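Repro:
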Amino acid sequence: MALLAEEKAAPRERGTNRTVMAAVSGAVSIRGVSKIYDPEGARVVALQGCSVEIASGEFVAIVGPSGCGKSTLLNILAGFDTLSAGEIDLDGKPFADANRPPRPGPDRVVVFQHGALFPWKTVLENVMYGPLRQRAMTPAAAAEKAMDLLRRCGGLDGVAAAYPAQLSSGMQRRVEIIRALMNEPKVLLLDEPFRAMDTVSKTTMHNHLLEMYQMCGRTIVFITHDVEEAIYLADTVIVMTTRPGTVKQVLKVGLPRPRFPEMMSSHEYLELKRQAAEGVHEEAKKAFERGEREQA
């Protein structure tokens, strides 16, 4: 009952049932972004003229065949890689262009496909790690906030003293996402976080992620190969072309929130799935006919 009372008192966005952690923006403008690997040698063009507008608080899923540049774009957004042309703004301020070195920052946090929890730290210590490392919070304040997030995100406060090896893969993924949210980033970047999971575990994780999204109100960029996953989770699905990657389709998902598995049998969902699957299949066929190897 205490949890329900706290959630009732928490601020919510007008017209939605999303509980907001703190006032943030998180609007991303990607304009004409290109990425060329080894420009003086093999010259692999991973991205070419890629442009995307992402609104504050929007959930965007990016799909496409292997090698279309999805992960390359995410790494550029995260500040882990350079771009060869174009520019990217966050809330109207440029942070990436061809003349800037890569610049990671706490305003953009990544959850990778492969687990990144510290095995020698407890769940609570893992979640507290970022704020303590940056000296942004006292240990007591970090512990209080971490326990609150663990409790609100599926009741994980009960495993706060456990180590990652003692958790299921799904619980480990949830802890990683909670750790990412501890720094209250403007943009949460998820790189195929559920790819290795079986169907039942993946469905459960979808619902947990949607609950976290409703709670935190952050902008999310979600990379996936799974068209069904993309449509079920996102507000917008972007279909990428094969290499050189650029935007092929932008599909607006009009399914209401909160989302429920039953929606996956609706006419709107099935039509979006058909459009996205046809787009991905077209590009995958092109890549196969050209004999392209799988790349990021």
